[in-house]
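Appendix B, record 7
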Amino acid sequence: MGWKDIVPLIQRLDILSTEENELVQIRNVSHELKCIGRGTDAAVFVHPEYPLYAFKVYAKGKTQKQENEEAAYEKLGDNAYFPTFHGSGEGFIIMSYEQGINLYDCLAKGIKIPEKVVDDVERAIEYARGAGLNPRDIHLKNILLQGDKVKLIDISEYVNPGNDGRWEHLKEAYRLYYPLIASRRVPIPLIEFIKKQYQKHKSAGFSVKKFGRVLMPLFFKQKKGKTSI
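Structure tokens (predicted):
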């Protein structure tokens, strides 16, 4: 038996994207499937009888996203930095199931993010570039910690041109501000508020230093119970 045996369960799923670019909505989910992640274009599922595989199911109308991600995985081949690509079907792809905790949850739970993570992501980016890709859309939820190793997920943007600056901004924010909050829990509402402010103000002249100086005090005020988001 292989992963193809549960394709009927995958094909019954309805994954719907929203006009507001919010997380996808999921309908018609079998009790045998467990959703382990949602994005704005797709959701990822696992099945207890096939623990080595993760099934990424794309929302209706996101065919190009799937094609982009398949093309990116084909170029990456076998490597230590990204999931292994196992195949695809109409509206979904199959990857190795990568357990771990993403950096978003590390912030929310107060789990320390070691400096080695930054170095490993840099190595992953260099590997992807060497494979002819353009690594981008690298953010907190796309970086998994697996013990002392790192895996990057969600690579559909890697075939697109241009630099969105997200990794460079994250890297600078880590250097400038993370030492002030390392191992402290950051409330999820505050993380979401910062994300929205970042999307709102990000531009060609965006300054991580200025952005942090404005928003970092909110963290310490929340810790003292003086403000809420």
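Remarks on this record: The chain has a mean pLDDT of 92. The chain has eight helices and ten strands.
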